[in-house]
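Record Phenylacetic acid degradation protein PaaY, 195 aa.
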Amino acid sequence: MPCYKIEGVTPVVHPTAYVHPTAVLIGDVHIGPNCYVGPTACLRGDFGRIILKEGANVQDTCVMHAFPGLDAVVEKDGHIGHGAILHGCIVGEDSLVGMNAVVMDGAKIAPRSIVAATAFVKAGFTCEAESLIIGSPAKVHRKLSAEEIAWKQEGTGEYQRLTKRCLATLEECEPLTKAEANRPQVDAGTTQPKQ
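=>
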C-alpha cells in the first residue's frame, strides 16, 4: 500500500486490520484491530491524528483529514460509507456515516447514530445517542429504532468478516479472457439493503 511517513511519524496498522493496496496512509495514522480500509481511501495524518478504533471500516474513496490540533476519529465498530469525507470530527462508537456524506471539524456524532447518505454535517455539530441525522445542513430527524440499529450492526459485521476474507484470500491477479465453467461466486454475506 502507499504508506508515507512525515517528519519521522509513520502510520501504524494492527496486524489483524486490512488496508487495501491502493489506499494511501500518510503520517500520524492509527488503524486498530479488525479494521477495514477500502480501495483508494486516503487517510492523511499530516496535520491532525487519524484514528480508526477496533472493528471500524472506512470504505472506497473515503477521505480522513484534520486541521492542526484536531483528530479525526472513528470509534469502535464505526462504519464509514463509500466516498464519505471526515475532517477533524469524531464518529461515535457503533455509528454509521452514509455514502458521500461530509462531517466537518469539531463535529461529534454520538454513539449508535446514523448520518444519512449525502448529508453535510457542519463544524461543531453535536447530537444525542441513537440519532438519525439527515440533510444539508444536517439536522437530527428523530431517534433511531432498535431495528435500524440492528441493521447497522449487521452491516458492520459484514465488513468485519470482509476484513478476514481479504487477509486470507485477496490477491492481485490478471483478468481472465473468458469465465471458466462452474465459476464460483464470492460470499454474498447476509445483509440486505435498507428499504
